[in-house]
Structure prediction request, 231 residues.
Amino acid sequence: MTDFILYPAIDLRQGIVVRLRQGAPERQTDYADDPGAVARQWVQQGATWLHVVDLDGAFGQENSANRGALQAILASGARVQFGGGLRDMDALAALLELGAARAVLGTAAVEDPELVRRALERFGPERIAVAMDLRQGRLQVRGWLQQAEPEALDLARALREMELETVIVTDVRRDGTGQGLNVELAADIAGQTGLAVIASGGVRDLEDLRRAREAGLAGAIIGRALYEGQI
Prediction:
């Protein structure tokens, strides 16, 4: 069985730690105004990786407070997987030079797959991942506010041919709801493409994580369940 990594999620909006229910900006829960302290808390409890998202960037907005928050999170010593608004090579280079271990492309990977190819060639597959955010089987982009044209499996196969190794598969309808991780969706993409799949969206309890591990997934991202004590 491959290594299975748990990624506590730190979602940033205007410099504070939040969660959005099903990705909706108006359904926000605020958790902490000190992202660095949150990062240290998860590291002290055993986290080796953190999944950090700049929600303002995902919505096409800029917020300098999120960059300061990222620097504080990086100081925790965890390896950081970071996404949200990364849409060109300059942004990728700046993030990785800052100290992030892995950059996550979402909208850019769907709308400009050639960017993924160039990023893989420049930075290597260990430092680039792609987020595939799905609602009823359809890819979502631009902060999950728009539906994209490509079929998810077609995109996944094309990315695998580029030698991408890691994708993050999120069931948008479950994200932030605690309804349970969609292991079947993530495992299907993994099985049909050979990609290392990190599952995200709706983790409810430890049984979700056991099922994800037993399905051969590469990991799972935990948000609300961790912040509210279900796990």
Q: What stands out?
A: Residues 64-74 form the longest helix (11 residues).
